[in-house]
Amino acid sequence: MQAELLREGPSRSPDERLRPDRPRRDCPVLLSERLVLRAPHTDDIDALAHLANNANVATMVSRMPHPYTTIDAADFVRRANEGVIGKCVYAITLANNGHFLGCCGMEPVDDRTVEMGYWLGQPFWNKGYATEAAQVLIDMIFRTRPEVTQIDARCRVTNVGSRRVIQKCGFQFQGTGMVPCQALGAMVPVEWFRLDRKTWISLRSWGGTR
User: Fold this and answer.
1) 20-77 pLDDT per residue, tens
2) Residue 207 maps to a domain
3) How many Å apart are CA 193 and CA 191, to the nearest integer?
4) Read out DSSP for 122-136?
5) Model's pTM, two decimal places?
6) Assigned domain for 8 exists
7) Is 208 among the domain residues?
8) Quick check: is 7 in a domain?
């Protein structure tokens, strides 16, 4: 289950990178019933490379190369911790044992809009983890960023699981388009969805939507 993920940003000094013990104020650690969402760090690199090196994952995420190596994973972790203003990248982990499942995040589109993305390793599909992670991320965005009035999400038109997650979170279909897929080296069709703040307020008791 995958939706679009996240652009690169400018570098910070090595001392400011990879510091999971010092989370950014604008990207707090997030907790749900079964999950902890926190900054990716170097201990995730092997698990990240193993799960992401899967064509079924990479071909559903626009900016993921395939094959995916530990070098790619280390570069992703470095960039995820560079502290681009307004952007958050999270490792999705199990609360009971810290096991790495995948990633999610958000980044600004304009002053009122952010885009949300996520992916999970294939062994963790169809267990409700993507919906749970997406909902806690959405709650954080709307509760801590009063300027944000809407969240966008995209998925490939063939990605039934990701579309189901997006719709269960209350997003409404907006249209279709084409985006480049790095793993395929080609343009692929995607569907675009949007969740506005008013709809989120009416749905924020998420219990009946998982």
Assistant:
1) 444 566 899 999 999 999 999 999 999 999 999 999 999 999 999 999 999 999 999 9
2) no
3) 7
4) GGGTTSSHHHHHHHH
5) 0.88
6) no
7) no
8) no
